[in-house]
Amino acid sequence: DTGLEFPSQGEIRTGVIASISSSQLLVSVGAKSEGVITGRELDQIPVSEREAFKVGQEIPVYVVNPEDQYGNVVLSYVRAREAMGWEVVEKMQETGDTFDGLVEGYNKGGLIVLVHGLRGFVPASQIGMARRTQVQGDTPDRWAKQIGETISVRIIEVDRARRRLILSERSANPETRQSIKERVIDELEEGKVYTGRVTSVADFGAFVNINGADGLVHLSEVSWERVQHPGEVLKVGDEVQVKIIGIDREKKRIGLSIKALQEDPWQDKVGTFKVGQLTEGVITRLTKFGAFARLEGDIEGLVHISELSENRINHPKEAVKEGDTLTLRVIRIDSDQRRIGLSLRKVDSAAYTDLDMKSLTAELDDEFSEQAEDEQAQDQAEG
């Protein structure tokens, strides 16, 4: 055991610069050989940073390739800094922290600000009034004099996949924002419905401004339907109605819900099922504790592992597989938790004989009734 931990692709490590040349950096990352930063990855490092590097200095590195054709560990300093930057700005968005930086550039729509190595965009609508009064005209170069100026910004949108970082100078005055929020929180009432505007969208939810204070609509409170990211149904600027489901006056936090104002489609769908009835389901996925089945109305129920077979099994795959179409028995309906319990082993259970007979009789009565109505209608048509 050499004690070496071999790097894996995509991993970020702290390395130590072993040597510096004009064509490459050798970095020790605890592997069998030193990693190398060369070519395009070396050229992308800002000149000022490269000149400041020293042998023995610790730097973050991203593993591009744990072993190339020459046996080298290929590294990237720029990608490591970028990945770390995204983590920082995501955290800043969550906490609402402000960032003090410099205006690095501009385009027709607004200003470019570097935030922890990432290019962030401040739309013109989010530039502070004081700064906007300093510019004239509507041409792109109206922002040129702002380059090099200090600016305080707040992060209002982060989308790492699309490399999108949106900033706001107008939202960056913490004292003003805090005093407004304190006043608004005192006025808000839990359980009431308010109209607000979406100010920020993140992986964990969306922030909605109500009367000057931002509240959080957690991902689980966006919709009754399954949503992977709030951005699927919400975007910055949308006007939405929200219900206040929690106020933490000590921590100055407001919990909001959009789905609380919508009818739960699950309750309507589950109304067609009764405990004890037989139903058809398609196995959609297996877990160590059971199998999930999709029932009529696109509603999902769980067959617990103990309900799959009369015999003891260690995993659901011993009894069923994904895609199986099965007759199942409804054994439990929990409306509060939105869960349906199903059973495969109780399909032929004697305990449900009377219920099954009643269901069968009812179905036959319905069929006979429909047949009689059809025959009567046919006789009237012929008469």
Give the helices and strands, then pairings.
Elements (H helix, E strand, L loop, with lengths): L11 E9 L3 E5 L6 E4 H5 L3 H6 L5 E8 L7 E4 H19 L2 E10 L2 E6 L2 E6 L5 H4 L17 E10 L4 E5 L5 H14 L5 E10 L2 E6 L2 E6 L20 E10 L4 E5 L7 H6 L7 E10 L2 E6 L3 E6 L20 E10 L4 E5 L9 H30 L1
Describe the protein's architecture and organization.
With 383 residues, the protein is α+β, with helices and mostly antiparallel strands. Helices cover 22% and strands 37% of the residues. It is built from seven helices and 20 strands. The strands form four sheets. It has a five-stranded mixed β-barrel. The relative contact order is 0.06.
What spatial order of strands do you see in the largest sheet? Answer: 1-2-3-5-4
Label the CATH architecture of the largest domain. Answer: Beta Barrel
Number of helix segments? 7
CATH class annotation of the largest domain: Mainly Beta
What string gives the helices and strands in order? EEEHHEEHEEEHEEHEEEEEHEEEEEH
Give me the secondary-structure category: alpha+beta
CATH superfamily of the largest domain: Nucleic acid-binding proteins
